[in-house]
Amino acid sequence: MNPLITLSILQYSVAQFIPGGDWIIQLIFYLFFFIFILYGQKIQMYVMIREVQGSLYRLKYIRDEGRKITIETINEIGKPQSDPTPRVDRFLEYFTISPQSLDPAGIVWKLEHILNIRDARFKDEVKLMAPSADKTQARNLENTLEAAMALNYIYKIIRHFYLLGKKTLSLYVIMQLQMVLPLVMREAEAYASALKAFAYGQPIGDGAGALVAASLMHGHETRKLPEDCVVATVQMEGRTAFVIKAEGPGGNVGKPGDAIKTIIEENEGKIANIIMIDAALKLEGEPVGEVAEGVGAAIGGPGVDQFKIEEAILKHRIPINAVIIREDVGDAVSPMRKEIFDAVDKAIERIKQVILEKTKEGDKVIIAGIGNTIGIGQ
Amino acid sequence: MQEASPDRTRVSPYIWLLVIITVAVSLILLLLALQEITSDTKDETLATYLLLAGAVLLGSAAYAMIQTRKRVFRAKIESHPIMTTIECKKCGFKSTREFQRGDYIFKESEKCQKCGNPTIIAAIYREVKEKEKERFTS
Fold first, then answer.
1. Cβ(A359)–Cβ(A240) below 8 Å
2. What is the ipTM, given to two decimal places?
3. Taking the domains of chain B in order of start, what are their residue ranges?
4. Around A176, how many Cα atoms within 13 Å sit in the side-chain half-sphere?
5. pLDDT tens digits for B22-36?
6. Are A71 and A199 in contact (CB under 8 A)?
7. 3-class state of residue A263 by DSSP
8. B103 and chain A: CB distance < 8 Å anywhere?
9. Which domains, from first to last, does chain A contain?
10. Which residues of chain B make contact with A58, given a CB cutoff of 8 A?
11. Which of A17, A193, A202 is facing B124, going by the closest CB pair?
12. Contact status of B134 with chain A (Cβ, < 8 Å)
């Protein structure tokens, strides 16, 4: 109902029962009118600031819980001689500067170099923090620390814009923050559940591709490939399949780019087809665990591995197919949902179908299961 | 990860003080209204004003408390039980238990309850109950 009509009705009702009520309501009406005319935007801004503040409290809670879980896990698994808290706090502020892209030629190799340094530094830090952790546990701890770092970063960014908006009283800074907050909160909550999964070594949704490869190579002999990957030679539908995945069960994505390149070179480029399986972000409305098929290198991350795969297949003109398992961002980093687990069989069926349709008997194919192999053996 | 953080569960003492004062004032106003209605020199106008003010204040205090409780309730991180399915390689017997640290898919597990042969961890997953069926899913 129109607020003015409501006010008129109220005015009439009050005037009926309270002598002088008519005058009071008129005064209230004009008071509200002028307050909203002069301070409407400020009131709206304060409401938004309060909303952002509420989310910021929640982000702080998530961040603190993440830090607590990380320290507890390090103490439990790593059995350090001294308190790891200061080292963890220092580590949470760790940053990586991406290479200069003014002259983009050769940037992939520069990026790869920076990422290698970062990985090596992470491994060294974890070794110092948790000297008793074995290889699998150390990898899980690296992942746990990365999730804690991500939560710390999200909290600090949102806090920065919240304080900036409050300081400048800029409606547009606060408005942008308030608009993007639901998505940021979703991501933060996803990282929060990832943290526990990493700390306990539970398989996550992102490992769907690795699980498909693990299911195909289970029971077959495996050998190591550079970097942190394994390969098994499996006979499928009369073809020789080189099934590749990151080495599990520790939290690890490996370097599938290098692994695929090695297999191609070992076989002098005589590979009839490459099939990549990975978890992919679903759109709202699409069911979790839906399997879809396409072409191209199905791999996420900073892009170094995708670049290497594309370079290798271009050199030898190898066709590449992709099978994806759809899930949302929360499912990708939290413990694997049953729907995703159940999608593994469907993905294997699709792979067999692609092999039958796109290759001949006696051909060699590469099947690469991409993703974090935490909690998945081979 | 289910517990709420102590920072968020503790309601600010200022809010508590404000709520207590508001409730006290509203109760006084309501009592005065009651007194006015039951007195011999009944002033209905004054009683209405007092009743209205008392109700509004009491309502505001209740609203403030509900809002605070709501925020405390939301300060939790949801976690779902993670299940591990163990399968016998020989007889195919399957059993499910809660996830234990150190479990991973394809890990050799305890002996089969049925045939005594070695078993493997065949699955580790979490089950999520969908809150409601979304429209436009197909």
1. no
2. 0.82
3. 6-74, 82-126
4. 10
5. 898 888 888 888 888
6. no
7. helix
8. yes
9. 52-200 (no CATH), 205-369 (3.40.50.1470)
10. 8, 74-75
11. A202
12. yes
